[in-house]
Amino acid sequence: MAKPRTQADKSDASTRKVLKAALSLFARQGFRATSMRQIARRAGLSVGNLYHHFGGKEEIFRKLIDQYWEVLLDPELPLNKIFAAARFPEDLEEMAAAIEQVVAENATHILLIYIDVIEFKGKHIQTFYQNMADRFAATYAERLAQRREAGELGDVDPLVGVMLATRWFFYFFTVEKCFGVPMHFGLDSRQAVHEFSKILRRGLDPRNETNR
């Protein structure tokens, strides 16, 4: 016999419906052009019921942004397991594949970042990006310093390198998968990752073979 649904279960289900409806609407028409009435209608709730679950439209928007941060900070995310192993720059191709997966699975949430920049001047995303350098330092700094001291890395700052690589790959796959513009570098994703990885590992300065 099926267990009867509790009020908490019903409330959780309603919250999920609201977030799903709002995500679709915000991503398609922006924040200000989306009304609470539209969200309620899409979620199959009354406007009063919607306000019972959320105090207002911005609270819903903020929750959706937070959902994406929760994904990015999840230790079980394949990308974070790659970060934790701290094998940069040998792992560039693995990193790119993991970032491609993150972008593909969260494309609609990623669009909200751009909406936040346009409509809120980045109000809901600033803290996450302000703390980015500290998160990378906590994961990579010690290991990269050891490798640099051992002569395994060049004279550039490898911590900047890993952050650059991460943002570079996120940018590339966002344009490809969220903006719908494949080949925007004149290369398919496999070719682009190959060329990016060569640049990140070797740079553009000419070097003789003994230094490669």
Which secondary structure elements does this structure contain, and how are they paired or packed?
Layout: H1 7-29, H2 36-43, H3 47-53, H4 57-73, H5 78-85, H6 92-105, H7 107-120, H8 126-130, H9 132-149, H10 158-177, H11 189-202
Helix pairs in contact: 1-2, 1-4, 1-7, 4-7, 5-6, 6-10, 9-10, 10-11
Kindly report the CATH topology of the largest domain: Tetracycline Repressor, domain 2
CATH class of the largest domain: Mainly Alpha
Q: How much helical structure, as a percent, in the residues?
A: 55-70%
- Name the quaternary structure: single chain
What kind of sheet is the major sheet? none
Described by the principal axes of the CA atoms, the overall outline is elongated
Number of helices: 11
CATH architecture of the largest domain: Orthogonal Bundle
For the record, give the distance between the C-alpha atoms at the N and C termini, rounded to a whole number: 68 Å
Low-confidence stretches: none
Order of helices and strands: HHHHHHHHHHH
Helix/sheet category: mainly alpha
Characterise the protein shown here.
The protein has 212 residues and is an all-alpha fold. The chain is built from eleven helices and no strands. Helix 1 crosses helix 7, helix 4 crosses helix 7 and helix 10 runs antiparallel to helix 11. 19% of the residues are buried. The model has no long low-confidence stretch (mean pLDDT 92).
